[in-house]
Amino acid sequence: MNIHEYQAKALLRGYGAPVSDGRVVLRAEEAKTAAGALDGPLWVVKAQIHAGGRGKGSFKEADAGEKGGVRLAKSVEEAAEEAKRMLGKTLVTHQTGPAGKSVGRIYIEEGSDIERELYLALLVDRVSSRISFVCSTEGGMDIEEVAANTPEKILSFSVDPATGYQPFHGRRIAFSLGLTGPQVKQCVKLMGILYTAFVERDMEMLEINPLIVTDKGDLKVLDAKLSFDSNSLYRQSDVAELRDETEEDPKELQASKYDLNYIALDGEIGCMVNGAGLAMATMDIIKLYGAEPANFLDVGGGATKEKVTEAFKIITSDKNVKGILVNIFGGIMRCDVIAEGVIAAVKEVGLKVPLVVRLEGTNVDKGKEIISNSGLDVIAADDLKDGAQKIVKAVKG
C-alpha cells in the first residue's frame, strides 16, 4: 500500500525526521489560507499522486499551465493560484502512463535553500531477507538512470537483523555521501530514525529523493515516498486509514475486498488461476504462444464460489480482455467449485469473449461435467499447453 507525500512526511515527522512545514489542500478555496499559514519567501506547490516524476510531468488540460506537478511560488497569492490550476487536472508522468492520474490533493510547503541533493532509500532485499540501505550522491535523479550510467555512485548494503541499525551504518552512509562535521552526526541520527520507522511500520520501501543539505549545512527530508506491506495492515490501523482508494486501479481495489491476488496488465487474455506459481507459468505460456496476459489473478487455495464469481466479473470488466483462460489445478481448491463459480459468473455478466477452461486435480471429472452440462460456449483444454494454444488461437484467429 502506498501513501501520499504529505502523509509520509507527517509520519516521519512523528519519529523526529527533519521535514519542511506544509499544508494539504483538498479544495481550491482552501489554497490561499493554507499558503498563508506558511512562512515565505518561497513556497513549493506539489501535486499529490501515487507516481514519481511529478516535476517532469505535464498536464493534459491546457488551463493547468505548462509547468509540471511541482511548482515554485514567490507569494501566497501565486502559491494559491498554482494550486487551483492543478487541482482536478490530469497529470501525466513516466510512471502514470499516458492515461495519467487525476490530482485531487495539493501539498504546499515552505521552500528550502538547497546546497546539495542526495538520494536515500530503505527497502526489503528479497535475496538476503534483510533491510537494505541504498544511497547516492546523485539526488534528484531517477535511481534507475544512475544505476545504468554511473553505478559506482550507488552504495547499497544490508543490515543484520540480529544487531539492527548501528551508528557505524550511519557513518558509512555519511562518508559515502561526502558529508562532513556535524552533518555526520545528523546522518547517523536520521538513519536510525528511518530504520526504526521502517521496522515498526512494516514498510516495504522508504525512498527520500532528494535528501538535501541546506545552505546552513543541515540535512532535510525534501521528498518522501513510503510503501507498506499490505499483509501487515491488520496491525497498522492508523496507516491503513491513510489509504487513498482513488489512486488505485478499480479492479485491483475490488479484488482486494474479496482477498483475491489481482494485478492489472496491458494484454488481451484474462487469466484465472489458483496458485501464484501456476499463475506465473500461465502468463509465460500465453506470451510463448504470441499473446499478452491482461492480468495476474490468483484465486487462492481456499476460494469459494462467490470469490470465483467475483474474480470472473473483475476479468470481464477489463475492456482490453478479448479472451479468458481459466487454468485450475485442484489440490486444496476443488475443480467443481471453480466450475460452479465460472458458470454463476457467466450467467450473471454474460460471455462476450472466448473462454477456455483447463481443469485438473480434485473433483476434476465433476468440474468438467458441470461445465459440459451448462450449455455455455466453453472451449475445453486437456493441459496447460493445449489451453494456451486454444485461447491464443481464439483471440488471434
Automatic annotation (TrEMBL):
<feature type="binding site">
    <location>
        <position position="109"/>
    </location>
    <ligand>
        <name>ATP</name>
    </ligand>
</feature>
<dbReference type="GO" id="GO:0004776">
    <property type="term" value="F:succinate-CoA ligase (GDP-forming) activity"/>
</dbReference>
<feature type="binding site">
    <location>
        <position position="112"/>
    </location>
    <ligand>
        <name>ATP</name>
    </ligand>
</feature>
<feature type="domain" description="ATP-citrate synthase/succinyl-CoA ligase C-terminal">
    <location>
        <begin position="272"/>
        <end position="391"/>
    </location>
</feature>
<dbReference type="GO" id="GO:0006099">
    <property type="term" value="P:tricarboxylic acid cycle"/>
</dbReference>
<keyword id="KW-0479">Metal-binding</keyword>
<dbReference type="InterPro" id="IPR016102">
    <property type="entry name" value="Succinyl-CoA_synth-like"/>
</dbReference>
<dbReference type="Pfam" id="PF00549">
    <property type="entry name" value="Ligase_CoA"/>
</dbReference>
<protein>
    <recommendedName>
        <fullName>Succinate--CoA ligase [ADP-forming] subunit beta</fullName>
        <ecNumber>6.2.1.5</ecNumber>
    </recommendedName>
</protein>
<dbReference type="InterPro" id="IPR005811">
    <property type="entry name" value="SUCC_ACL_C"/>
</dbReference>
<keyword id="KW-0436">Ligase</keyword>
<feature type="domain" description="ATP-grasp fold succinyl-CoA synthetase-type">
    <location>
        <begin position="2"/>
        <end position="212"/>
    </location>
</feature>
<dbReference type="Pfam" id="PF08442">
    <property type="entry name" value="ATP-grasp_2"/>
</dbReference>
<dbReference type="GO" id="GO:0004775">
    <property type="term" value="F:succinate-CoA ligase (ADP-forming) activity"/>
</dbReference>
<comment type="subunit">
    <text>Heterotetramer of two alpha and two beta subunits.</text>
</comment>
<dbReference type="GO" id="GO:0006104">
    <property type="term" value="P:succinyl-CoA metabolic process"/>
</dbReference>
<dbReference type="InterPro" id="IPR017866">
    <property type="entry name" value="Succ-CoA_synthase_bsu_CS"/>
</dbReference>
<comment type="pathway">
    <text>Carbohydrate metabolism; tricarboxylic acid cycle; succinate from succinyl-CoA (ligase route): step 1/1.</text>
</comment>
<dbReference type="GO" id="GO:0042709">
    <property type="term" value="C:succinate-CoA ligase complex"/>
</dbReference>
<feature type="binding site">
    <location>
        <begin position="331"/>
        <end position="333"/>
    </location>
    <ligand>
        <name>substrate</name>
    </ligand>
</feature>
<keyword id="KW-0460">Magnesium</keyword>
<comment type="pathway">
    <text>One-carbon metabolism; formaldehyde assimilation via serine pathway.</text>
</comment>
<keyword id="KW-0547">Nucleotide-binding</keyword>
<feature type="binding site">
    <location>
        <position position="274"/>
    </location>
    <ligand>
        <name>substrate</name>
    </ligand>
</feature>
<feature type="binding site">
    <location>
        <begin position="53"/>
        <end position="55"/>
    </location>
    <ligand>
        <name>ATP</name>
    </ligand>
</feature>
<comment type="similarity">
    <text>Belongs to the succinate/malate CoA ligase beta subunit family.</text>
</comment>
<feature type="binding site">
    <location>
        <position position="223"/>
    </location>
    <ligand>
        <name>Mg(2+)</name>
    </ligand>
</feature>
<dbReference type="InterPro" id="IPR005809">
    <property type="entry name" value="Succ_CoA_ligase-like_bsu"/>
</dbReference>
<dbReference type="GO" id="GO:0000287">
    <property type="term" value="F:magnesium ion binding"/>
</dbReference>
<feature type="binding site">
    <location>
        <position position="209"/>
    </location>
    <ligand>
        <name>Mg(2+)</name>
    </ligand>
</feature>
<comment type="function">
    <text>Succinyl-CoA synthetase functions in the citric acid cycle (TCA), coupling the hydrolysis of succinyl-CoA to the synthesis of either ATP or GTP and thus represents the only step of substrate-level phosphorylation in the TCA. The beta subunit provides nucleotide specificity of the enzyme and binds the substrate succinate, while the binding sites for coenzyme A and phosphate are found in the alpha subunit.</text>
</comment>
<keyword id="KW-0067">ATP-binding</keyword>
<dbReference type="GO" id="GO:0005524">
    <property type="term" value="F:ATP binding"/>
</dbReference>
<dbReference type="InterPro" id="IPR013815">
    <property type="entry name" value="ATP_grasp_subdomain_1"/>
</dbReference>
<feature type="binding site">
    <location>
        <position position="117"/>
    </location>
    <ligand>
        <name>ATP</name>
    </ligand>
</feature>
<keyword id="KW-0816">Tricarboxylic acid cycle</keyword>
<dbReference type="InterPro" id="IPR013650">
    <property type="entry name" value="ATP-grasp_succ-CoA_synth-type"/>
</dbReference>
<dbReference type="GO" id="GO:0050074">
    <property type="term" value="F:malate-CoA ligase activity"/>
</dbReference>
<feature type="binding site">
    <location>
        <position position="46"/>
    </location>
    <ligand>
        <name>ATP</name>
    </ligand>
</feature>
<dbReference type="GO" id="GO:0005829">
    <property type="term" value="C:cytosol"/>
</dbReference>
